[in-house]
């Protein structure tokens, strides 16, 4: 049996142990097309041989930019890694300026894109990328060589022996990939991760997932250019999980019903949208059906793991699952028994209600620099606690600095930032990676994140404000889609509120309020008063000095393309404040 020390060992291990017919499954022209583990390996080898014939050498960089997850990405990934070159995945939604910077900074010699739009995006600046020799695409794009040409170059296996020698010479400590952090400020930094960094994280995380090896299906839709989903794809291969790739984030709900996965990975924003859609459907019911639906939701919101609520609650939960929650599960394909969430904190109410519905969300925590998982919940053996990110992985040491910052040490901690030893030295001190997050470990070993160190601020009265805690609480309101707490060096905390425009329009229609645009919502006095009621109610959970005293409604959604959000859906606080400087002045200067 293959011993896994390098990332490209995973498909060989999967083939020896499981021999899946549906290792990778992608939808083309309305049909799901399966790639077996054997075909996956054969194509990866052909791709490697083709790259060698193109003159690829050890430590060359190949950028891969895909707007969706697909079988070709994984084949390309393994094909690149087997040559000793590095895969540099790039977010498809970032600016042309940032993509140009990444390609130049990494020294990419080739770039592989998924489709015409990305080809045109890269083509506009390709002549300014110093080392770039060519662009290839997964889709058939006019004027762009297809990735199939590389496979065709590798069809002749006469250089397979050369490839095997190169593979044998690749060490677990060799660089495997450079992943550029999206960053809320400044230029992206290139995180260097070795084979050992990611392999160790896969093997350590393996203990926390209840997969029935060789018998599960997953639906993959989070960007594979991020280490979170990418590590999960290697983890699926380690457990012989068939990987179905969603067509797009918009088609996830359709694809879940088609693929009927047992597991998905998600981010809180997606779970919030799923929950809001379920609640909206419940609100459309009438009579006894409506009462039963919202009774079940109330039962779900009281949920505590391991029967902590007592036997009477257990009876209510059994009934709620039979009458209501079973329909939720059916709407999510019928098999879904596990969701893993990362990237940001999940609202405890969502963790409770999904667990009550029999679709538990196991929240975890980590960073690109830690490959990524530091800690994660596990429903088995008492390892699940709502409001925490679980216990640290075995093999990862976590300690809390005097100022509350979370520090960690382990084989998953990055090699450093590419070409930036000074920035590396700023975050890795005395062998510990400084995460920039504030948190604590409770008496049972569960890690709880309270905020980002750099996002905490002081009011002019000297009180510390942790904005994420307040924002997560406020987003429990149906009226509030996004919120950013402001007030550094000001006399009080305030906020910009991006309402849930769709929900607010429905509410306004029921109240006879005429709304023709998002700007009408932002300027409507009655809507502002209604959102004020929501904020007043949630404010009661916080100390007086933490409460939102004033807010302004922003007239447009905050998006990645609009520059208000990072590709991992975190707030770009500096950009949002600059964009809404007039509203800021209205709050604090008028």
Automatic annotation (TrEMBL):
Residues 24-418 form the AMP-dependent synthetase/ligase domain. InterPro entries: AMP-binding, AMP-binding_CS, AMP-dep_synth/lig_dom, ANL_N_sf. GO terms for molecular function: long-chain fatty acid-CoA ligase activity. Pfam families: AMP-binding, AMP-binding_C_3. GO terms for cellular component: membrane. It comes from the Bacteria. PROSITE patterns: AMP_BINDING. The keyword Glycosyltransferase does not apply. Keywords: Fatty acid metabolism, Ligase, Lipid metabolism. The keyword Metal-binding does not apply. This is Long-chain fatty acid--CoA ligase.
């Amino acid at each position: 049996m293959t011993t896994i020390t390098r990332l490209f060992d995973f498909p060989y291990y999967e083939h020896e142990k499981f021999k899946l017919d549906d290792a990778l499954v992608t939808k083309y022209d309305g049909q799901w097309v399966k790639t077996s583990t054997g075909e996956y390996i054969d194509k990866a080898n052909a791709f490697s041989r083709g790259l060698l014939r193109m003159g690829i050498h050890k430590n060359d960089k190949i950028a891969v930019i895909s707007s969706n997850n697909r079988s070709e990405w994984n084949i390309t990934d393994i094909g690149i890694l087997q040559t000793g070159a590095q895969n540099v995945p790039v977010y498809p939604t970032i600016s042309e300026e940032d993509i140009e910077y990444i390609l130049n900074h990494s020294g990419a010699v080739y770039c592989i894109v998924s489709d015409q739009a990305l080809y045109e995006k890269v083509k506009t600046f390709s002549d300014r990328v110093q080392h770039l020799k060519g662009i290839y695409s997964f889709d058939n794009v006019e004027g762009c060589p297809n990735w199939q040409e590389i496979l065709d170059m590798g069809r002749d296996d006469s250089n397979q022996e050369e490839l095997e020698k190169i593979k044998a010479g690749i060490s677990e400590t060799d660089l495997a990939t450079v992943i550029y952090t999206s960053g809320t400020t400044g230029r992206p930094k290139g995180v260097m991760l070795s084979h050992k960094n990611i392999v160790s994280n896969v093997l350590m995380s393996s203990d926390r997932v209840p997969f029935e090896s060789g018998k599960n299906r997953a639906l993959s839709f989070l960007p594979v250019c991020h280490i979170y989903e990418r590590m999960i794809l290697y983890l699926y291969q380690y457990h012989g999980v068939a990987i179905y790739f969603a067509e797009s984030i918009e088609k996830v709900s359709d694809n879940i019903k088609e693929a009927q996965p047992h597991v998905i990975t998600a981010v809180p924003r997606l779970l919030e949208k799923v929950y809001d859609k379920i609640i909206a459907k419940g609100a459309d019911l009438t009579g006894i059906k409506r009462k039963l639906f919202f009774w079940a939701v109330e039962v779900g919101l009281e949920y505590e793991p391991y029967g902590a609520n007592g036997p009477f609650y257990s009876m209510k939960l059994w009934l709620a699952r039979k009458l209501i929650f079973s329909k939720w599960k059916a709407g999510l394909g019928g098999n879904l028994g596990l969701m893993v969430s990362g990237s940001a904190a999940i609202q405890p109410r969502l963790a409770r209600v999904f667990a009550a519905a029999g679709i538990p969300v196991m929240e975890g925590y980590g960073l690109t620099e830690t490959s990524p998982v530091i800690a994660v919940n596990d429903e088995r053996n008492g390892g699940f606690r709502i409001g925490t990110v679980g216990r640290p992985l075995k093999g990862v040491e976590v300690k809390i600095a005097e100022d509350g910052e979370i520090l960690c040490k382990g084989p998953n901690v990055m090699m450093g930032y590419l070409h930036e030893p000074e920035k590396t030295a700023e975050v890795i001190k005395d062998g510990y990676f400084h995460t920039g997050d504030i948190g604590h470990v409770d008496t049972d070993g569960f890690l709880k994140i309270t905020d980002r160190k750099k996002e905490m601020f002081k009011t002019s009265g000297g009180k510390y404000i942790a904005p994420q805690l307040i924002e997560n609480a406020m987003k429990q309101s149906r009226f509030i889609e996004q919120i950013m707490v402001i007030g550094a060096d000001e006399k009080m905390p305030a906020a910009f509120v991006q309402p849930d425009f769709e929900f607010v329009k429905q509410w306004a229609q029921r109240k006879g309020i005429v709304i023709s645009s998002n700007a009408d919502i932002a300027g409507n006095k009655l809507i502002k008063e209604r959102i004020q009621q929501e904020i007043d109610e949630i404010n009661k959970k916080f100390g007086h000095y933490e409460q939102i005293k004033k807010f302004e409604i922003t007239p447009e959604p905050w998006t990645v393309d609009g520059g208000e959000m990072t590709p991992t859906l975190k707030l770009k606080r500096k950009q949002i404040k600059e964009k809404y400087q007039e509203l800021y002045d209205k709050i604090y200067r008028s």
